[in-house]
Design brief:
With 365 residues, the chain is an alpha/beta fold. It contains 14 helices and 9 strands. The protein has a single domain, classed as TIM Barrel (Alpha-Beta Barrel). Bound molecules: iron/sulfur cluster (SF4) (2 copies).
């Protein structure tokens, strides 16, 4: 009898805690406003890349001209960037940018509120990456800016080479990771691996987990999706999980297990997305927390679906970003519900579903 009351007491306690969290999330959702000054720049530095990944169409863009470090510096002087706290540097392969060091100097010198730089690299050119990082790390430390590096690894051994379209892609990425881990403080403040899941690598995805655990490097898993920045629309049936029923089922189970293992909202969101093809998270780009600046100086609301709003070399970035809010509204209405990019924090509906799942698991114990 006593056991029964303890059980009911616990049920009421958890139900109430979950309800309060849900109400809080709903309140935050309604109160959220579109910002005038973003806090993060998504900054692909170059269209140049030494890989040809199955989910990427960067090869189609490789002839396009990139901004120079001087041009980047002059763009970043615009008031739009006065409250930027983080810069996500990617590409192409950012370490192939000829004036990489000068671009980093522009970022460090022109952004007064900067707190973190996060670089995504394919990790292929080990020596060049180590040299550039070593120099950048000391500059970042002097300014109190955190430096994080993410290496893209989608498979172990031959799977990575196939997925990334380059021989020795795995051997070199592995070497880069090991060299950095051997003397981490010299190169970065944080190192992690980003693993992008397609219909090709899902059946062997656990090998990435085993490899990264052996190196003691955390992994973030994402789903490959259609993305304007890397021009992959024509390749849609070549990689999307939704184009292969079996792969989609495997990935759904994988993300549910990841959610159970880590408790992360992100993984529950991706599990829901694969089940329903619907988004259950907020996106920082929906509220202008983030701004995208492309290598040809175009401003966008996000890298995934936003059109180019105009060149920041010709018009004030602030005007482009804040003068196109009607288009932002249309973008959200048309594309966001089926996009899985930047899925970190569940919205109210997603949180309710996650709590239901927790209660169900609790009862099944
Ligand atoms: S996904 Fe990244 S590494 Fe691969 S081809 Fe595209 S830009 Fe290069
Ligand atoms: S299309 Fe995707 S990345 Fe762009 S604002 Fe919408 S949810 Fe965010």
């Amino acid at each position: 009898m006593l056991e029964k009351y303890i059980y009911i007491g616990r049920y009421i306690k958890w139900k109430s805690i979950f309800k309060l969290k849900e109400i809080n999330r709903l309140r935050q959702q309604f109160q959220r406003k579109v910002r005038k000054y973003p806090n993060t720049i998504q900054l692909p530095l170059t269209y140049v890349c030494n890989f040809d990944c199955v989910m990427c169409g960067m090869k189609n863009l490789s002839g396009k001209k990139d901004f120079t470090a001087e041009e980047l510096g002059s763009i970043l002087k615009d008031p739009l960037f006065s409250k930027i706290e983080a810069v996500g540097v990617n590409g192409g392969e950012p370490f192939l940018k000829k004036d990489f060091e000068q671009c980093m100097d522009a970022i460090l010198n022109e952004l007064p509120a900067l707190k973190a730089i996060n670089i995504i690299s394919n990790g292929y050119c080990t020596d060049k990456i180590l040299k550039d990082l070593s120099c950048l790390k000391s500059k970042c430390s002097a300014k109190g800016v955190r430096l994080n590096l993410s290496i893209s690894v989608d498979g172990y051994g031959k799977m990575q080479d196939f997925h990334r379209g380059r021989k020795n892609a795995f051997v070199n990425a592995d070497r880069t990771c090991r060299e950095i881990m051997n003397n981490k403080g010299q190169y970065v403040d944080g190192l992690d691996v980003i693993c992008t899941i397609t219909k090709h690598n899902i059946s062997r995805i656990n090998e990435v987990d085993v490899w990264s655990k052996a190196l003691n490097i955390p992994v973030e898993y994402n789903i490959a999706s259609l993305n304007r920045r890397i021009d992959n629309y024509k390749k849609e049936n070549d990689f999307l999980l939704f184009s292969d029923w079996h792969a989609r089922r495997l990935a759904t189970e994988f993300f549910y297990c990841k959610y159970k293992e880590t408790g992360k909202e992100k993984y529950f969101a991706l599990y829901l997305y694969l089940r329903t093809h619907k988004r259950y998270t907020e996106c920082p780009c929906m509220y202008n927390d983030w701004v995208t600046l492309t290598p040809d100086a175009q401003i966008g609301y996000c890298a995934t679906r936003s059109k180019n709003l105009g060149s920041a070399l010709e018009t004030s970035a602030y005007e482009l970003f804040n003068g196109n809010l009607k288009y932002l509204k249309m973008l959200k209405k048309k594309y966001c519900s089926e996009c899985c990019h930047y899925s970190y924090r569940l919205n109210y509906k997603g949180l309710v579903l996650m709590h239901k799942d927790r209660m169900k698991n609790w009862f099944m114990r």
